Amino acid sequence: MKTSLILILGDQLSAKIPSLEQADKRSDLVLMVEVSEEATYVRHHKKKIAFIFSAMRHFAEELTRNGWRVDYIRLDEPENIGSFTGELKRALIRHQPNRVVVTEASEWRILQAIFDWEKEVGVPVDILSDNRFIVSRDEFQRWAEGRKQLRMEYFYRDMRRKTELLMNGDQPEGGKWNFDAENRKPASADLLMPQIRKFSPDATTQDVLKLVKGRFADHFGDLEPFWFAVTSQDAEAVVDHFLDGTLAQFGDYQDAMLTGEPFLYHSLLSLYINSGLLDPLYVCRRVEAAYYAGKVPLNAAEGYIRQIIGWREYVRGIYWLKMPEYVSENFFGNTRHLPNFYWTGNTDMACLQAVVTQTKEEAYAHHIQRLMVTGNFALLAGVDPHEVHEWYLAVYADAYEWVELPNTLGMSQFADGGFLSSKPYAASGNYINKMSDYCRHCRFDVKKKVGDDACPFNALYWDFLLRNEDKLKSNHRLAQVYRTWHKMDEAKRTEYRQSAARFLSKFS
Ligand code: FAD
Ligand code: DLZ
Ligand code: SF4
Which atom of ligand 3 approaches the CA of 458 most closely? Predict the structure, then answer.
């Protein structure tokens, strides 16, 4: 009987993954491998490693229950070579299959390795396209071809048409494509915050926690309490919970930040979607159904669906369009090292302290925290975008390069010179003050522009614009800002620059 070896990677944990769908339980064999190279090429957060290993082990158990033969290699097996290629070679000796089947890897780094396998191992390797996205890599390339500028909003409209989500024929539900203008309310402490759905570690997860504690003790982040879902059934329970108690307010408070409330009205679904435990379109259809059932307003449903069929698909398209050069782009030529407080949370700046601390505790921060607090500070301070990228890739449980890199390097650091977004997400303390209560707990004064007790974001903001004036002055979205700068008197401008220089000298 001909046997295929079906390799399932750690972010392909879906029963509908094409490599598995085309396989035959009676003859084929599934291979899953825990390898140290994946956990250490950046030193991932302990919770992230535990999540992936536990989800992989649960998925393997489920496959076995469903009649599949699974060869599962644990990290602590003495013979484990520690890389996908090494483990594949060992498996080929054990099983002597006729061919290997794998769904295309989500990251460029791994897909290149897979392309070399056939030559390297001497067995045919079939690479199948990943059907968990609404547009394939080729389709996105065709969409991008011939366009002067790629803009998410137009891409998103095409995705609405393609999926027919929230559409009335060819018209968008509610007469508008986008209700973002309604989604900018700051949260207040007296709002009733939803409880998040947490799960107790079962025996399989306990084993993984022990392993991670022993092997990755020096990695960033708190391992416990560990409460993530690790099966698709439990991840679906998180969807139910989100739809019942949280989604209705998601739109309104999407951009808000509040001390002591890391999750607010966000879904916490990205780690489950990205690893394969949840299908993105399934989540969107559930959100759409909640809207049509009258359970949630349109601004919440549309806002949520846009994040998934719009932003998520768009950044993946950009990643594959621009790799491998993308990862080295550095439009501003920034060279500063990432300040150490990104690893400790040890800073007087209350906003950064809050976001880094919750990142350390939960391997989670929501979008505006990533973009307008940690991302904004790194951009203003002129940190090397590659170091910023490696930090984001390591510290968040949902981070895989295909989604993290365009968000970090493109959206947050503008290191691609505006390929992904039309203007840098740079802001003074005023934005953070408007959208959060962090400034009320801070030793710096957000209203003060310069001096040792002034909010550092204020002087850094102008310093960033001035430092990069040559590169940004032709950006029409910044024209008004530069006019304001040039109208300022010379003494004030000098004060801003000196204040920024004094502050930054602590980090050089
Ligand atoms: P919600 O706020 O509930 O949003 C709903 C869903 O929409 C998310 O689960 C996610 O699947 C999707 N989504 C929302 N925004 C984006 C976006 N910009 N790009 C892609 N998908 C999006 N997201 C990741 O999944 N992995 C990353 O590594 C990652 N790195 C980021 C780095 C930076 C610098 C920034 C600014 C954003 C990054 N994002 C990343 C996007 C976004 O911050 C996360 O998807 C979101 O915070 C996940 O939390 P949630 O599930 O509660 O999202
Ligand atoms: C992130 C990760 C980690 C930490 N460990 C593993 C692993 O041991 N085995 C595995 O199959 N996948 C792991 N992953 C996810 C992979 O990094 C991810 O599947 C690839 O990068 C996709 O290109
Ligand atoms: Fe952050 Fe400035 Fe507000 Fe302090 S005052 S929390 S540093 S924005």
Answer: 2
